[in-house]
Design brief:
It is a single chain. By secondary structure, this protein is α/β, with parallel strands linked by helices. The protein has one domain: Spore Coat Polysaccharide Biosynthesis Protein SpsA, Chain A (Alpha-Beta Complex), CATH 3.90.550.10. Helix content is 35%, strand content 18%. It has eleven helices and nine strands. Strands 1, 2, 3, 4, 5, 6, 7, 8 and 9 form a nine-stranded mixed sheet that branches. The longest helix is centred in the C-terminal third of the chain and has 14 residues. It is globular.
């Protein structure tokens, strides 16, 4: 589906101006500058009781001006008006459903299982894309065959949308991912479907670090590209999972880091990981690392 134009979507509510309410990305031509077709990009939004933010997320995906978008929303049975918002936009959705599920990870995997795109991503119902994000990522996949992951910086914003600080994207480095924290901002990452089929989708064992785990699995197996621009807004608000379930997030990291093994990786990736493994990664050491790890995701309380 070609992305709809601004005048095809429901009019924004009173006082809502700018991106993605009264502004839209310019339409890309149907073919790339080299004359090839653009890859189909499939975006999934997992949704559960985020009605105050959901419409902004939906519009930020639909107004990308991209020639071949497949947009899927998997709602977990929201009771806050989210379903009514989704219905307003269902004419531009490839698929949507509102039903109980096993959580965010399960919802994303359900959406990806239905996707037919060569490039896959997910954007949460309280985050949103900036103008031109999908086209910027797709262009890299067109020019870098075999690339498994493309990503850029995310700007962390508070509930009203005011910027707090950036979640800076950096070229993939396994040592930094394991010892410092995620340098692959989740809202701003796009995966090749071939890479996902190879390493598998999100791990259902994780509900809070599933993106971190997947980025590592892709990053050690495939070439990656870090785009030097801000692609998304990551919303940090009182009801966000990373604030409500901070201790669970820390516990998942404590469990993940010492248990991370190379037995599911290719020999090339195994050798790379083995060279970087650090001895003595005990729970005590990992807890000391968590301050740095979690600052890559959650701003300090004084900032919110």
């Amino acid at each position: 589906m070609r992305c709809p134009t601004l005048d095809q979507l429901p009019p924004p509510g009173a006082g809502r101006t700018g991106w993605p309410w009264t502004d839209a990305s310019p339409n890309l031509p149907f073919t790339t500058p080299g004359g090839e077709r653009w890859p189909r990009v499939s975006v999934v939004t997992p949704s559960y009781n985020q009605a105050q933010f959901l419409e902004e997320t939906i519009r930020s995906v639909l107004l990308q001006g991209y020639p071949d978008l497949e947009y899927i929303i998997i709602d977990g049975g929201s009771k806050d008006g989210s379903v009514e918002i989704i219905r307003e936009y269902e004419g531009w959705l490839e698929y949507w459903v509102s039903e109980s599920d096993r959580g965010q990870t399960h919802a994303i995997n359900k959406g990806w299982a239905r996707a037919t795109g060569e490039v896959l991503a997910y954007i949460n119902a309280d985050d949103y894309y900036l103008a031109g994000t999908i086209g910027a990522a797709a262009e890299v996949f067109c020019t870098r065959p075999g690339c498994g992951m493309v990503y850029g910086t995310a700007m962390i914003a508070e509930e009203a949308g005011n910027e707090l600080r950036s979640w800076e994207a950096r070229p993939f480095d396994l040592r930094m991912m394991l010892a410092v924290g995620s340098i692959v901002p989740q809202p701003s990452v796009f995966f090749s479907s071939a890479a996902l089929e190879d390493v598998s989708y999100l791990n259902d064992d994780w509900q809070l670090i599933m993106d971190y785990d997947l980025s590592i699995r892709i990053g050690v197996e495939y070439p990656t590209v870090c785009i030097p621009r801000v692609l998304t807004r990551f919303r940090n608000h009182p009801q966000s999972k990373t604030r409500l379930r901070f201790e669970e997030l820390a516990e998942e990291l404590i469990e993940f880091i010492p248990a991370f093994k190379a037995d599911q990786l290719s020999p090339r990736a195994w050798r790379r990981l083995f060279a970087l493994r650090q001895p003595g990664l005990t729970a005590h050491v990992i807890r000391r690392m968590l301050g740095r790890q979690l600052r890559a995701i959650v701003p300090s309380s004084s900032s919110s």
